[in-house]
Amino acid sequence: MSVRVLIVDDQGLVRAGFRMILDAEDDLEVVGEAADGLEAVASAARLRPDVVLMDVRMPELDGIEATRRILAAAPTDPPRVLVLTTFDLNEHVYDALRAGASGFLLKDAPPERLADGIRTVARGEALLAPSITRRLVEEVARARPRPTPPAGLDELTDRELEVFRLMARGLSNGEIAADLVVGETTVKTHVARVLMKLGLRDRVQAVVLAYESGVAVPGGGEPALG
After folding, report:
1. Which domain of life is it from (predicted)?
2. 223: pLDDT confidence band, cut at 50, 70 and 90?
3. CATH assignment of 147-213?
4. What is the pLDDT of residues 34-84, one digit of tens each?
């Protein structure tokens, strides 16, 4: 089945360029376009795309708030949001990830990178490498106050909390398995439980939440919890 894509950007030429790229892919289908955040929210509800390509800076409603509203409107089967930006690793990207985006791409990325990125998030994976997310979140988290711990954190077992901290460091399942001296299948089970208990979609959101909640701290170390 084709991946259904909604393109959101306030520049018509940009939308046309993305459509041309995606129309050349047999497994990707552009189901609609939107020129601002409000139109994106309405189009996502009407068209039910699998993936939303979301610009950040737009009139009426920016891409960050549009992402938040789109995901809130479809809690049981939300689309994946892939943020498009001209700026690498800045606060806009951080806020988009915090709002629930599954990753970001630079607008000048090669066409094959765009297509592959859409396929990646459509499969339920996070596009942005956790290690890169960690660098971004650490940088922004230093300048922001730490909020209260998230709901569900106290439901994690000691081992799940340990896995959560290692996820926040950007470690892969294999690296976590080596660190804890357990099997990779066991790690996958722990990761799935962490995501489920904390209501997270993927590892990118896990990294963001870990730093925001104080489970992980910029520069490393073990924070005091409770």
Report:
1. Bacteria
2. very low
3. 1.10.10.10
4. 999 999 999 999 999 999 999 988 888 999 999 999 998 887 788 999 988
Three-state secondary structure readout of the chain: CCEEEEEECCCHHHHHHHHHHHHCCCCEEEEEEECCHHHHHHHHHHHCCCEEEEECCCCCCCHHHHHHHHHHHCCCCCCEEEEEECCCCCHHHHHHHHHCCCCEEECCCCHHHHHHHHHHHHCCCCCCCHHHHHHHHHHHHCCCCCCCCCCCHHHCCHHHHHHHHHHHCCCCHHHHHHHHCCCHHHHHHHHHHHHHHHCCCCHHHHHHHHHHHCCCCCCCCCCCCC
Q: Amino acid identity, residue 5?
A: V
> Does residue 29 have a pLDDT over 90?
yes
User: Looking at domain 3-127, which of 3.30.70.3040, 1.10.10.10, 3.90.1530.30, 3.40.50.2300 is its CATH number?
Assistant: 3.40.50.2300
